[in-house]
Design a protein that fits this description.
The structure is a single chain. The protein is of the alpha+beta class. The chain is 17% helix and 26% strand. Strands 4-3-7-10-11-6-5 form a seven-stranded antiparallel sheet. Strands 2-12-13 form a three-stranded antiparallel sheet, with no helix packed on it. A two-stranded parallel ribbon has the order 1-14. Strand 3 (105-112) and strand 4 (118-125) form a beta hairpin. The longest helix is centred in the first third of the chain and has 11 residues, at 88-98.
């Protein structure tokens, strides 16, 4: 059962754990100069998404990696996330640069000020994932605990409703602007110039410019504590599980069966490390292998010694 986490207290004005001034994601001294030195944006509009062959079209079971053993010749560095003198922000930077690409949940919520005025909020979160389809369940992760709740988390606690919108290339700059550290209750809708569209089941608006949007209701909250010996008991993160109660797809992006979205139209944007976004322009298709079919082709028994998992290499 979900615990009662509703609160009307204003969040503390202390610096958020993932604030730009604290994390310093931007590695460039003069970003505008760096940006000006790069090639101009290429939309690759025709086609919007293309396919190429897999790197090894003749790959078969047991072949391993495709780099000729190069990765086996490299050494790895072991890192204790809590080793003495290691800043916690180093773990943050490392993880967001290594666990890539990450989908970005563009979350729309509503709340109220202390005097009862309605507020709206729109913010991107790359700690977002899909964990189930029946029911449709998403996760959204927040840095910092409830005591320093972001506006989005604050609103989710109070209303338990949101929409999660997928960011496409045509709205990237506007969506990125919503990561601005605006004071509560300033609305990012106005700052970004994006357009609210009415939802069917929940009160928060969808983003009209989004090709794919999900109306969601909160299923559960989970708050986490630091395991750093220097900050025992400190609240460092919150996980929110959201159930999708309505799915919205732009008409020109969905197939007749209403079960596939065209990536050439969706053109989703992903999050990489630092201030880098990924653009999805190409893909490869690789069918899943079938056990019986692979055995018929003689691709299995010689690897396992005809003893099932007994032939699996030990780590």
């Amino acid at each position: 059962m979900r615990e009662n986490l509703k609160s009307t207290q204003e969040p503390e004005p202390a610096q958020k754990l993932d604030s730009e001034s604290h994390v310093r994601r931007n590695p460039h001294g003069d970003f505008n100069a760096v940006e000006a030195s790069r090639p101009p944006y290429n939309s690759f509009s025709k086609p919007g998404f293309g396919f190429q062959q897999a790197s090894r079209t003749d790959w078969k079971l047991g072949d391993g990696a495709n780099d000729g053993g190069e990765s086996l010749s490299k050494k790895s560095v072991e890192i204790d996330p809590y080793e003495k003198g290691r800043p916690v922000v180093s773990n943050y930077k490392l993880l967001i640069s290594g666990i890539i690409p990450r989908p970005v949940g563009f979350v729309s919520t509503m709340g109220k000020t202390e005097d009862g005025k309605q507020t709206t909020n729109l913010a991107p979160f790359s700690y977002t994932g899909l964990i189930n389809h029946d029911p449709p369940l998403l996760t959204i992760g927040f840095a910092g605990g409830f005591d320093k709740a972001k506006d989005t988390l604050r609103n989710l606690r109070e209303t338990e409703e949101c929409t999660v919108n997928i960011i496409s290339e045509h709205m990237l700059e506007a969506a990125n602007s919503c990561s601005i550290n605006a004071p509560y209750p300033a609305s990012e809708w106005t700052l970004s110039g994006l357009t609210p569209a009415p939802s069917s089941v929940v009160k928060p608006a969808r983003v009209k410019e989004s090709v794919f949007s999900i109306e969601g209701k909160v299923v559960d909250f989970k708050e986490f504590e630091s395991k750093n010996p220097e900050t025992p008991g400190k609240k460092t993160g919150v996980l929110v599980i959201v159930e999708g109660v309505r799915l919205w797809v732009r008409e020109d992006a969905i197939n007749e069966e209403r079960n596939l979205i065209d990536p050439a139209i969706l053109r989703p944007v992903s999050r990489l490390g630092g201030i880098t976004y990924g653009l999805l322009r190409e893909g490869v298709e690789i069918p899943r292998p079938d056990w019986e079919e692979q055995r018929k082709q003689g691709n299995v028994d010689h690897l396992l010694g005809n003893k099932g998992d007994a032939g699996r290499p030990k780590v």
